[in-house]
């Protein structure tokens, strides 16, 4: 919603942004001080002294990393919201195999040294990566007999003779699929996802992921600032009493007795329970640790993906870890957050393989959230509802949703180049030098 309010303001729309909370970011806020997190999860008492100063903590409720070459970074660059943020590269991505974790190779040297694959497998995998790097959907000469719109990914893996372990980590740690459904779909999407991973990795070398200092709560604030520069208004602590509808169409929002009139409305599912449907649940466990995660070479930050095959599940389990190096925790402390899509009546048992990697855990905060999707696409009502954040630990799916809402509102695809030109018109050419 914050990103859209920034983009709509740049597009010349008059934006009023209301939030019933006292902080930015809604569901995906960063909570500070630590005392507030204890309150939010109804834990008795206050944090122990060993946790340091409460205000040194900024704990994300919904952990996500940014792909260095991904859509959100593009949005940040084009809107110049980057001037309000500082990023650090995440130190490594790891994948779970047979109860242990292995670093996802990020260079050719690492791939050759990795114990994830045997020697001949490495050669085949390298051949496959070279193929992906050269693949260009507009140039049939790069297809080598593969039809990007027809050949399934399963067949592409077969073509390079890649074994199950390699398929697991390629599909889940590189292409970042949550299930194995992609294997029987046309390979174009998967090849593009692996390309995005490789190109993101090429930018900074350690991993393809970035994370903002002071936590993800900085992102919505950056876009709120962007909106303000273009004349948008932001109100925190603003209760929403009613969405006013006339002849099936939104005409305003009632708050504290007044009605703010509008032609279009964007909101998350919590404001319109009658226009959304429940599509699943996610369990997230925030863990405070006093040590880096074992077998990660004492990294200050990392991601671990547990492919579903390895733990007999349908969906992957994700762990992402950040620390005092990112100004989100007290000195010497680490925050690890595990998340997955719920499949049984005992979600805490489902997430146990991830928590076992984190032991000993000083404090746990468990949340189980319902996932909603809009039943009303806004064509008639002009109410545009976002989807609940999923269990993935990156922003690509969120950006797809942003672009989808933009298209439904504006009737045209979201165009990065168009945004660039609009900015030139406002700032003039000098500032662009």
TrEMBL record:
GO terms for molecular function: GTPase activator activity; Rab GDP-dissociation inhibitor activity. It is found in: Cytoplasm; Golgi apparatus, trans-Golgi network; Membrane. It is a peripheral membrane protein. Transmembrane segments: none annotated. This is Rab GDP dissociation inhibitor. It comes from the Eukaryota. Belongs to the Rab GDI family. Keywords: Acetylation, Cytoplasm, Golgi apparatus, GTPase activation, Membrane, Phosphoprotein. GDP-dissociation inhibitor preventing the GDP to GTP exchange of most Rab proteins. By keeping these small GTPases in their inactive GDP-bound form regulates intracellular membrane trafficking. Negatively regulates protein transport to the cilium and ciliogenesis through the inhibition of RAB8A. The lineage of its organism: Eukaryota, Metazoa, Chordata, Craniata, Vertebrata. InterPro entries: FAD/NAD-bd_sf (IPR036188), GDP_dissociation_inhibitor (IPR018203), RabGDI (IPR000806).
